[in-house]
Design brief:
Elements (H helix, E strand, L loop, with lengths): L6 E5 L12 H8 L7 E5 L7 H13 L3 E4 L9 H5 L4 E4 L4 H11 L1 H11 L2 E5 L1 H4 L2 E6 L7 E4 L4 E6 L8 H10 L6 E4 L3 E6 L2 E7 L6 E7 L2 E6 L2 E3 L7
Parallel strand pairs: 1-5, 2-3, 2-4, 4-5, 6-8, 8-9, 11-14
Antiparallel strand pairs: 1-10, 6-7, 9-12, 10-11, 12-13
Length: 239
């Protein structure tokens, strides 16, 4: 049997929680598993496992024909390898990235997720669940300012979500890149996602009219922002 591809889908914003009737990205994630009824586990650590987010995840992914489950780390925690390595996909929710990564590292979940990635389980997530996979991320984990934060390092460079919906994101990213605080940045607007195969960017997909992905890098001492080609996902047909 050929080895499964290592795949990550990093979503800039507008997930099943923000757009419960627009599940094109969620369908795309499930399609990567090549299973008719794939199993997918939700990890909502970054938002402290709120009941409403968990309920919305179950509703969205059940409607898409998946078999959803949730991994909780703030109640009695199951065996992580048993819970995750049997999945077809894993979805990480948004929230406080710094706190999420601290909890994950305490439990050794970072190592289990790397094992899942190497095994070919599709990894995905929005906001905190997008930037965690990269060497670095631009996060609002601190209340008063955006800050760079070291991630898990599965993917190279830096990721910044919500590039269009939060006014301070674009100027902060340009400042960080200009001062050499972060390596080149993949900036994703709400309604855009970056699909990686291995460590290489395969494509940008969008499901909102103005959504885009950008690279921000320094060239000859000047910060340059370049829009990336994108593929528009077809809308999900009402059931």
């Amino acid at each position: 049997m050929p080895e499964k591809k290592r795949q990550i889908v990093a979503i800039g914003g507008a997930s099943f929680r923000a757009e419960p009737e627009n599940l094109a990205a969620d369908r795309y994630i499930l399609g990567l598993t090549r299973k008719k009824h794939p199993s997918i586990c939700f990890i909502p650590t970054a938002s402290a496992e709120p009941a409403d987010s968990i309920a919305m995840f179950y509703d969205a992914y059940t409607r898409l024909g998946a078999k959803p489950s949730v991994l909780r780390l703030f109640r009695r925690t199951p065996d992580l390898r048993t819970a995750l390595l049997s999945q077809d996909a894993i979805y990480v929710g948004g929230g406080n990235t710094k706190s999420m990564l601290a909890v994950w590292r305490e439990w050794g979940l970072d190592a289990v997720l790397r094992e899942a990635w190497r095994k070919g389980i599709v990894l995905a997530g929005v906001s905190a669940g997008a930037i965690c996979w990269f060497d670095r991320g631009v996060t609002d984990s601190w209340a008063d300012r955006l800050m760079p934060l070291d991630g898990l390092g599965f993917l190279a460079d830096t990721c910044c979500p919500h590039y269009d919906s939060e006014a301070e994101r674009r100027p902060t990213v340009h400042d960080f890149v200009g001062r050499g605080i972060v390596p080149p940045v993949l900036a994703l607007t709400d309604g855009a996602a970056a699909h990686f195969i291995g460590r290489r960017l395969h494509r940008i997909v969008t499901w909102m009219p103005t959504a885009s992905g950008f690279t921000v890098r320094k060239r000859s001492g000047v910060v340059v922002e370049s829009e990336l080609p994108a593929s528009r996902l077809p809308p999900l047909q009402p059931q």
